[in-house]
Task: inverse folding
């Protein structure tokens, strides 16, 4: 098996873990057990780099605790696979990867309880390629590649660019659905769901697209994770699998994402009580 | 006292490139209409060819 195939398999495995956590399956550590249980340590670390900021989505969207061991594991992935250069001479693909690394580093740096951040949190150079939507086909594909940044509480130039580009994003979504490129469609749907979450009017109704893509293209764990995040942002927790837990837990957040009681509570209550998917949580605390 | 030494895996440039390619996946090629089971297409065609003809209306009634 090539290294890419091994890394892809490990990334799917980690995405499945994140998806289970997003569905409220326990509140145990995510990343550290992934590293411990994997027969290929290098592939497991590479998977952490690939999934990146999405590792934090259960914590951000449902208030599931993010453990200090998880934060240390994310940092170790950056130690093993250093961030490549992303200067002005870097290729667009390298800058895209740099933005994803920046997002992961941002969320890691905000994790209280973890000391030391080996990743530079300075955002990559924002060029015209982020804001110029003239070639909306190519631009939307790039935004799809930047889908892990489509998460609440992660502001920056990429999100600003998306806020002013509902129409190009909708065009890209429609195009990818027509091309039956469902992974790209789901990633663009995340951006539109985030815009809807922010109260921005959309040219297309994302819910029917979500249902269409869920029926036809949500087989891969990473695509399923993108789909679950989009469903959460649209306020539909059913696709994230939280139907059974909705309403069974009286605890909820206070709406500003800083409720310490929720994460200081038991693991199960932190993960299961916020299934509506409308309240983001800032990643501010790591539990030992 | 014995000290346990932890072996650390070594990343190589090929691995770093593989991570980059997984992080920045290009869009997929245009695919055709979905078939639930493409391998069954031949079987369905055989059934269509071997199926009996439509019954004709009996004459003289």
Result:
């Amino acid at each position: 098996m090539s290294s890419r195939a091994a890394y892809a398999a490990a990334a799917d495995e980690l995405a499945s873990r994140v998806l289970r956590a997003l569905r409220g399956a326990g509140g145990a550590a995510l990343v550290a057990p992934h590293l411990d249980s994997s027969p290929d340590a290098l592939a497991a670390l590479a998977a952490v780099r690939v999934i990146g900021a999405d590792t934090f989505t259960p914590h951000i969207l449902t208030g599931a605790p993010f453990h200090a061991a998880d934060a240390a594991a994310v940092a170790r992935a950056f130690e093993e696979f250093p961030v490549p250069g992303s200067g002005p001479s870097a290729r667009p693909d390298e800058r895209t990867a740099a933005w994803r690394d920046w997002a992961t580093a941002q969320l890691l740096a905000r994790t209280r309880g973890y000391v030391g951040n080996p990743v530079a949190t300075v955002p990559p150079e924002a060029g015209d390629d982020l804001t110029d939507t003239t070639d909306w086909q190519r631009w939307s594909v790039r935004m799809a590649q930047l889908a892990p940044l489509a998460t609440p509480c992660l502001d920056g130039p990429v999100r600003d660019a998306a806020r002013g580009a509902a129409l190009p994003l909708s065009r890209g979504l429609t195009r990818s659905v027509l091309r039956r490129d469902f992974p790209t469609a789901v990633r663009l749907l995340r951006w539109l769901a985030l815009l809807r979450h922010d109260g921005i009017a959309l040219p297309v109704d994302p819910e029917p697209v979500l249902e269409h893509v869920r029926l036809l293209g949500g087989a891969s764990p990473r695509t399923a994770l993108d789909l679950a995040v989009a469903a959460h942002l649209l306020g539909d927790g059913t696709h994230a699998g939280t139907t059974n837990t909705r309403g069974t837990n009286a605890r909820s957040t206070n709406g500003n994402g800083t409720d310490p009681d929720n994460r200081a509570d038991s693991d199960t209550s932190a993960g299961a009580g916020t299934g509506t998917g409308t309240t983001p949580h800032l990643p501010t605390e790591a539990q030992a | 006292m014995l000290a346990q030494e932890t072996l650390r895996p070594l990343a190589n440039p090929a691995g770093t490139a593989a991570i980059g390619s997984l992080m920045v996946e290009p869009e997929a090629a245009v695919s055709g209409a979905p078939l639930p089971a493409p391998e069954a297409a031949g079987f369905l065609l055989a059934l269509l060819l071997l199926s009996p003809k439509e019954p004709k209306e009996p004459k003289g009634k």
About this structure: Chain B has a mean pLDDT of 77.
